[in-house]
Design a protein that fits this description.
single chain; about 240 residues; alpha+beta; 2 domains; 5-stranded antiparallel sheet; 5 helices; 5 strands; about 55% helix; about 10% strand; membrane
């Protein structure tokens, strides 16, 4: 009776690894080790930014909230932007303040997973203060932004139309008006008055020549109240 023969294992057969990963190459290990110091440096920079930005950002957020609340309480229900135009000035300050706070939030985003106390303090304090400042200034934002809607939208159209008319009359789009040009433009507005009625104003407001430099036309709100707006953004540039 012949013996049973088992096939011999080939010497070329590679042994099974049973789930063990192949060893990493030297380049991969070196790349990982080189990236770790860079990550630590970025996180350290984020923490430093948070430390330097925390107190100023907190003060900015609190100040914006207080100014927004004060403006909302003292604002008068009138279309005239005021002398000086507080809402427009406050909005410019708010945009600068929010941009400053946003820079600090960039540092928070970089170091948000760190266990440093400044990260926890920033997470608990700055987001609520920023939201409060946004809510407090929302009436101011609505007041300035609302100049693109409703009756203000019609006023914006009239300002752009008459600004283009003045430019056509003087034959250029910029530069100071001469005395002769000013008299000619004033005479045209006297002969062709342009007016618009606002619900908050007892009398119609009128478009008139206000400045010798662009924008040339502005709005006469009556009772000695005048204002000049940017015909594109409708931001009040001048009021008296």
């Amino acid at each position: 009776m012949s013996a049973t023969r088992f096939p011999a294992q080939s010497a070329l057969t590679e042994p099974e690894t049973f789930g063990l990963d192949a060893p990493q190459s030297g380049d991969e290990v070196g790349g990982t080790m080189n990236s770790e110091p860079m990550v630590r440096t970025i996180k350290r920079f984020g923490l430093t930014l948070l430390v330097c930005w925390f107190v100023p950002s907190s003060c900015v957020a609190v100040s914006l909230g207080l100014m927004g609340a004060l403006q909302a309480l003292t604002a008068e229900p009138t279309a005239f932007p005021g002398d000086p135009p507080i809402a427009d000035m406050l909005l410019e300050v708010a945009l600068c303040g929010w941009l400053f706070i946003l820079i600090g939030f960039c540092g928070f985003f970089v170091a948000r997973h760190e266990a440093d106390p400044i990260v926890r303090l920033w997470r608990r304090v700055l987001p609520p203060l920023t939201v409060v400042s946004l809510l407090a200034l929302s009436p101011t934002v609505a007041q300035v932004g609302g100049r693109h809607f409703g009756g203000w939208r019609h006023l914006k159209s009239l300002l752009r139309e008459n600004e283009a008319r003045v430019q056509q009359m003087i034959g250029r789009t910029e530069g100071s008006l001469s005395e002769e040009e000013r008299e000619r433009v004033r005479a045209w507005f006297l002969k062709h008055p342009v007016s618009l009625r606002f619900e908050s104003e007892p009398e119609p407001v009128r478009i008139q020549l206000m400045h010798s430099t662009p924008p040339y036309v502005g709005v006469d709100f009556g009772r000695g109240r005048n204002a000049v707006f940017d015909p594109v953004t409708m931001q009040c540039l001048y009021a008296d």
